Amino acid sequence: MYIVSACLAGVSCRYDGKDNLIEEIEELVKVGKAILVCPEQLGGLTTPRNPAEIIKCKDGSSRVLNNKGQDVTKSFLKGAQETLRIAEIAGVNTAILKARSPSCGFGKIYDGSFSGNKVKGNGLAAELLHKKGIKIYSEENLPDELLKSIKSTDKKED
User: pTM of this prediction?
Assistant: First the structure.
């Protein structure tokens, strides 16, 4: 069982009200092998919403601010905790999450300047899942064997 960013399965839950549909990930959900999550919605944020990025503070801590300067850290933390709870209830050991997102990004995220620059780091939900031992992939680094298993699932359903 996988947990997947809902936007990757075609749910219009991105900050701008759009999706990032990847048909193979949508298929995982259709055949019951994946559970959809949107940590930002689980944290109480609306869709659409202002884009947000993680900001590193001078004291070494981090906050999540939207492009209007509003601190939305509490919502992002709540969404990360709810995402972990869903993963634990379902016995999930692998997640496929949206690259660079302040919730779901893993390995690289936007730098907080809203300029498209990327830095090493993880979104809040991805970090929490990773700390609990859940393997994280993004749509950009799915291993070939995972893609093959998804495609073989497609054929079995036909």
Answer: 0.91
